[in-house]
Design brief:
Helices cover 31% and strands 16% of the residues. The chain is an alpha/beta fold and 172 residues long. Strand 4 and strand 5 form a beta hairpin. 25% of the residues are buried.
Length: 172
Amino acid sequence: MADTHPNSTAGFEDLLEANRSFAESFEYAGFDGIAKAGVAIVTCMDSRIDPLGMLGLSAGDAKIFRNPGGRVTPQALEALVLGTHLLNVQRILVIPHTRCAMASATEAELHERVTASAGTDSTWQPFNVVTDQLATLADDVAKVRTHPLVPESVVVGGFVYDVDTGLLTQHA
């Protein structure tokens, strides 16, 4: 009998087949996980963003941390501290993007949409919307630059990625 539990492998067959094809030419066995280009990227989870491709990088070149809005959260800072001390990170890019749901909707609007989709109240879950994307970006970059465990030698920049042109613009 087929496993129909939501946490079974049912529903992932296409992705597992793609993984088998990927593994046939896998080149990273034994790779040490160090960021070869010395780069870390904090960006949004938006599927329109190709963090490596937009910077001309390849797998193994950068550490990537993604979350809604591309925010420098405590978890992102944890990753950046580890990256700068243990994984060769020397440059950090914080990259939110244009037309981001986290910067174009209110907390109440997101709760309304999620509650309608979930069929249950979502107001207990914070979504941390961004009311001023450039001011928030400047604050997030400052969080990284002033963190006591991020070395002063690490270069930190704030950029906005345009999802319609593919271009980055530096703002911080």
